[in-house]
Design a protein that fits this description.
By secondary structure, the protein is mainly alpha-helical. The protein is about 40% helix and about 5% strand.
Length: about 100
């Protein structure tokens, strides 16, 4: 059973600000989802083979061939900011 405290914890991890109404709503919805998974556990899968892909697929491999490397100046032409041959991006703060 999911509690309101569980929803608050997940919201904090996701950096979401939820209203009291949303917390109640998500508590109910998450509990319903877990109840459904518990129902799935009751399904008899004894003679069902495991599968990783529902549609038959074949690995598509390309020929391994040597190609010219990218040219840095051509790549940096698309950069909004560039400094000393590198992309320049804004500093990211560790504080939330």
């Amino acid at each position: 059973m999911i509690t309101k405290k569980d929803v608050e914890h997940v919201a904090k991890l996701a950096r979401l600000a939820l209203t009291e109404e949303e917390k109640e709503k998500y508590t109910s919805q998450f509990s319903d989802i877990l109840d459904y998974f518990n129902q799935l556990r009751e399904v008899n899968t004894e003679n069902v083979e495991p599968m990783a892909q529902p549609v038959p697929m074949q690995n598509v491999m390309r020929e391994d061939k040597v190609e010219l490397p990218f040219i840095r100046d051509e790549i940096l032409m698309n950069a909004p900011l560039e400094e000393n041959g590198y992309f320049k991006v804004p500093k990211i703060s560790e504080e939330g």
